[in-house]
Fold:
Amino acid sequence: MDQSSTILTPPAEPRDFGFYLEGASVPAGSREVFVRNSPGHGVPVTRMVKCTDDDLDAAVASARRAFDDRSWSALTGADRATILLRTAELLRARIDEVAYWETLENGKPIAQARAEVGGCVGMFEYAAGLARSLHGDSFNNTGDGALGVVTREPIGVVGLITPWNFPFLILCERVPYILAGGNTIVAKPSEVTSATTLILAEILTEAGLPAGVFNVVTGSGRTVGQRLLEHMDVDMLSFTGSTAVGRAVVEASGRTNFKKLGLELGGKNPQIVFADADLEDAADGVAFGIAFNTGQCCVSGSRLIVERSVAEDFGRMVAEKLAKAKIGDPLDESTQIGAITTDAQNETILGYIEKGQAEGATLISGGAQPDLGKGQYIAPAVFTDVTPNMAIAREEIFGPVLTILPFDTMEEAISMANDTEYGLAASVWSKNIDTALTVSRQVQAGRFWVNTTLAGGPELPIGGFKQSGWGREAGIYGVEEYTQIKSVFIEIGKRDHWIK
Ligand code: NAD
Structure:
């Protein structure tokens, strides 16, 4: 790759990646491989191994052995922190490289990818602190004859299934916390975006993580993914992806060993804008919230709920902002909106844009496919004349499609915001503190933003209300999810005999 020019270029030949087992990369050998084309360039960029059932079993066995031999879980928090901090350092030195492969496989703008990978460094640093500060509890209100101690134990082998929209960020919102808790991991990245998960495996080994603590299998969800869900030797599974597959995860756990689950699923997230907001800021935030990562974002603000008195003007302001955002080659530093990640997702988004018009909504801007001579792109679409029952207003599109619904009262805005099966994220824009706080208290969402959107950091937990998921990732809450509580009751001195 030529890092010196402003516009990087895809590799001349696709790069081969092995999968990752026992602290080393395993080449394909006689196994089948699959090729990933860059969605922004239409050329092959990576080649991955189609892991077999035996490979998945070997990865779970590797993680099991590394957990049971206590080479990781029995380390002091300080020793685990040292390795997490070394990982952060090594990752910081490889930000450009990780961002390059992320952009090639996913289609997101390189500048955005670099910022995401930079944010991941902070996840490892923060989790290092948590490894040192994680602790249990004690009860000495048991009289002089006893003491109660509560310990926090790792859960064991954690299966980690991740989607293609933020392959590295979502991984790093989980891995450092799972490791901080003393667990071992078998990761199964999305089949279209596996490269950066495999690069992280290399970095973790270089940082001193014992062999077998972090393993990666590559391949499809229906084969290796499903086997991971059903595996009797996996103690917990963290799944991030669609609500449909989330159901399969719950069923598989119930059918097998009741493995503990963490689920982060879909969203149809409201942006509520009051007339007293700074409308310039709000228009920029709403445009960013729907176009960032081409709207392929579980927390995209896809439902604009705006006070009727300003609805028409505000809709126009958002549309004008979006028309100015630069759509282009994801490897170009100045690109703001990159490619749509998969052919199937491209079809889905275009299908919804058609459906919205067929249902009677008005497309006031965007929706076209700019011809850049290569790759697949969609200009962010903005719809007015939307009714709450239309598919574009209810279903998660996972693309740059914004629907505008006007409201008259705060109560109506809150009820429209909550009129969804999801509860992942929401934003309110208002300069009235009472309005902003009332809405923040009453909207059902795991993440809430006031006068901003899509913001956060390693300290803040992530997760959903309602059908958007179970459990929380990141922050102290995230590491606690990957531990279990043991209570120890200790008798002091001579026992008072039951049988005299
Ligand atoms: P997906 O559910 O199709 O796939 C996610 C992962 O699950 C992939 O690794 C895939 O290979 C695997 N998978 C698919 N079928 C499987 C099966 N039967 N058994 C085991 N694993 C299987 O989702 P996607 O298309 O990659 O991502 C888009 C969806 O993810 C959207 O609905 C979006 O809202 C959701 N998402 C949610 C969050 C969040 O944090 N809540 C974040 C990103 C994406």
Observations:
- The chain is about 40% helix and 20% strand.
- The pocket of nicotinamide-adenine-dinucleotide is lined by residues 161-165, 170, 188-191, 220-222, 225-226, 229, 240-242, 245, 248, 264-267, 298, 396, 398, 424, 464, 469 (CB under 6 Å).
- The chain has two domains: 3-265+468-486, 270-450.
